[in-house]
Amino acid sequence: MRIHIGTDHAGLEFSETLQQHLREAGHEVIDHGPSSYDPLDDYPAFCINAAKGIIADQEAGVTALGVVFGGSGNGEQIAANKVAGIRAALVWNESTALLARQHNDANVIAIGARQHTVDEAIAFIDTFIAEPFSFEERHVRRIAQLAEFEASGDIAGKNVDR
Asked: Domain map of the chain by residue range?
């Protein structure tokens, strides 16, 4: 599987270790930066580029997921979610990683590098990658509603305030 990675200075050490782990597990890793430590760098472009890479791969029929890191993972999740078609989930334990795939068909997880050990992050990522989407009707329906809102600004019949 192809895995897109994006981070900022707070997640750079995590990123390097996790990329090595993913490659050793047989995944192709695409690093969207940064390439060196800069305590003043800005995460949005790194995470948005990772998210755009996932969408481009999915549109080309390539199986791809993503992982974004930062101090808390919050800003990185927000940045990734600005890309149409991305469903990025903030993950803080193996259960949230599992549910992100099972229930939300998340294609990106965000992890706070200052909140977790490398071993914890590896466990979250491995769980996320290994878990398929459940395709349960209720989850498919909800994801379709999110996509409809993303495309049109409305969800037909659901009373979205205008």
From this structure: 2-131, 134-162
- The residues annotated as belonging to the active site are 76, 103
Tokens at 56, concatenated: 């481009």
Q: What is the pLDDT of residues 117-126, one digit of tens each?
A: 999 999 999 9
DSSP percent split of the chain into helix, strand, coil, nearest 5: 50, 15, 35
CATH class of 2-131: alpha beta
pTM of this structure = 0.93
